[in-house]
Amino acid sequence: MKNTFETNIMESYNKKASERDSSNVQDWKVKEREVFLRYIKAEKHNSLLEIGAGTGKDSLFFKEQGLHTFSTDVSPEMIQLCKEKGLSADVMSFYNLDFPGGQFDSIWALNCLLHVPKADIKGVLKEIKRVVKPSGLFYLGVYGGENSEGIWEGDHYTPKRFFSFFDDESLKDILSEFFLIEYFNVVPKETIGGKFHFQSVILRNQ
Ligand SMILES: C[S@@+](CC[C@H](N)C(=O)[O-])C[C@H]1O[C@@H](n2cnc3c(N)ncnc32)[C@H](O)[C@@H]1O
Predict the structure, then answer these.
(1) Is 48 within 8 Å of 105 (Cβ atoms)?
(2) CA of 19 to the centre of ligand 1 (A)
(3) How many domains is the chain built from?
(4) Hey, whose CA ends up nearest to atom 14 of ligand 1?
(5) What is the CATH number of the domain that holds 83?
(6) Roughly how many angstroms between the first and final C-alpha of the chain, as a whole number?
(7) Over 80: is that where the pLDDT of 1 sits?
(8) CB contact set of 135 (below 8 Å; sequence gap of 6+)
């Protein structure tokens, strides 16, 4: 049973799936993949779960690098696009990951956890932690730099999407309740071209 946040966000992204599929991945996001790839190669990881995978472009990149990937997203339209790319994929919310504990060496989550209300974020992090192997790695990338949450009234998606943002210290505090922070980097607003900077974090399950 989905909550209202999951139902609304699923509807918003279902409608934008093909438009998002036809857009190019920005250079700074390509670099993010490469940073995490270096970590997972160094640790000889085999499996990678992507949550909030969208159209599956990042999963495809990691699959082409030799990882056994599994892509999940709450939007059926997004998962259809993942499957069309030949990816193993299933509709699934990161609130309830349908996997046994310790299933994956690594997790990739790019710009999806910013749709989780602050009241729910610890529950979602706990669920992610459950499915990563002990000492496994979790990449989290989100826009942030200030503490705020709510519906983005200027959004052109329908329904308008809910976003939650953290300043760097608040994000580190919450994450370190569950994981060891191995790497924390900020991509500046000027590179991204928006109101927020981007927080790039690599976490180790402990
Ligand atoms: C901004 S898009 C990012 C997609 C992809 N990671 C990328 O970087 O292109 C956010 C994605 O998170 C998914 N999402 C939002 N809430 C989710 C949830 N509760 N469980 C799984 N996926 C979710 C949306 O459907 C959407 O595809």
Answers:
(1) yes
(2) 14
(3) 1
(4) 52
(5) 3.40.50.150
(6) 30
(7) no
(8) 204, 205, 206
Give the pLDDT confidence of 97-155 residue by residue, as tens digits.
999 999 999 999 999 999 999 999 999 999 999 999 999 999 999 999 999 999 999 99
The residue type at 108: W
Ligand 1 within 6 A of CB of 54:
yes
Sign of CA dihedral 154, 116, 143, 30: negative
How far is the centre of ligand 1, averaged over its atoms, from the C-alpha of 95 (Å)?
12
- CA of 156 from ligand 1 middle (Å) equals 16
List the domain range (segments joined by +) for residue 86. Answer: 4-205
Q: Is the CB of 6 under 6 A from ligand 1?
A: yes
Q: How far is the CA of 172 from the centre of ligand 1 (A)?
A: 21
CA angle 54, 125, 12 (to 5 degrees): 30
Q: Which of 79-114 are b and which e, b meaning 16 or more Cβ less than 10 Å from the residue's Cβ?
A: bbbbeeeebebebbbbeebeeeeeebbbbbbbebbb
